[in-house]
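Let us begin with a simple case.
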Amino acid sequence: MSLLDKVEQFVINACSENHSDISHHQKTVYWIKKLKPEAEEALLIAGMSHDIERAFNGDWKAGSSDPAKLKKHQELSADEIEKFLEKEQAPKELIEKAINLILHHEEGGTEDQNILCDADCLAYFEEKSIKKAAKARAGGKSEEYRKKLDYLFNRIHSLEARQIAQPLYDASKKELRS
């Protein structure tokens, strides 16, 4: 079993034990592979585990874009996967790369951090944005959710990822107005 397979199994187990959703992690890896077919193992591991802390701590940040909460979320996820990778005796360089990516997955920075951020956003738009828009509209929180959609869309770095996200972004905003 490859290290990536072991990480995926770890994430699946953690999510199922704590009633957390695995699909976002898997969709993030899917989008990484679409955006960068030659992605290194560290980037794929970071994609699979970037939100792992939610499996242990729940969604305590509840979609917040508060920089302090985002930083804590990234650090908690990095800590969880670092412990797992060390237990698996992964190469130190790979661990450091994966941790560095996870620590910056919310805003990006380097090329690979940007790809992880873009893939994370694409996974969100693909899976949740329209459903959450309908829920926000029904709950009288359209304006609040529109700000979140704008924030997520504006986080996307690459033109390719923006073009993929655009129809989902537009459909979500339309749902808020329905």
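The second case is a distinct protein. As before, the sequence precedes its structure tokens.
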Amino acid sequence: MPRRRPLAEKAAPPKKRLVAVSGKGGTGKTAFTAMMTRALLDGGRAGRLLLIDADPALGLPGAVGVRVKRTMGQVREEIIKTARSGSQEEKAQLGEMLDYMVLEALVETDSFALLAMGRTETLGCFCPVNDLLRGAIETLSRSFDSIIIDGEAGVEQINRQVVRHLDVLIVVSDATTRGLQTAALIKKMVRDDGVIRCDKLGLVFNRVQGNEDLLRRSAGEIGIEVLGVVPQDEAIGQFDLIGRPITELPAASPGPAAVRAIVEGHILGQ
């Protein structure tokens, strides 16, 4: 009797993961997010990858080498304008147009997609509009396996619950007391106050030039896990100065090498 061949094993689907980067302004969050993007893509386990630039400064598109034509802030302005002065027919079509408007703001490359939040000009809360956009983004996000959010500086986005649940929240700090104070405040909001749900919260020290043991002890004093330390890398500043994408840094450069270890140990390894 001929021996039956074993059925070919199906490849396991990529694990869904939602990761956000936060911290004090000026700590290099966007460069870190760009290097994390490169590490995820090189690791080959990110699946369909969506980047969300939640910082109004819009630094992430340039850091990963894409151009943005429309932001979610502009979509929000269009919705508000139509709701205020549009015809009844235009107002009735808003809900149907929203998905198209969100997709129009999405930039897709061969490796990943990017959605930029941008800034808004219209004053006021407009909570129904914000909820509508949040729902549209959540719906869009279901089409992706890995989602990386480059957050706004400080803690306001966490306080506003822009995202309700995260797999990993990475707080990026420089070697300063203010950076650690911001990290401590974020930890309190997440762990003690329960502002958002987060499965893993950790700290990354960026642009470090010595004193690593002191930094780790300081993190221990505020009770936050250190996910890794990224050394000062002159190549990052050079790329930033000439407008070259951070994702094109040599893989062996100190910054990308350190970020790759963090990604392997705390994101892909989750």
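The CA atoms of residues 90 and 240 lie 43 Å apart. The radius of gyration is 20 Å.
Keep these points in mind for the review questions at the end of the chapter.
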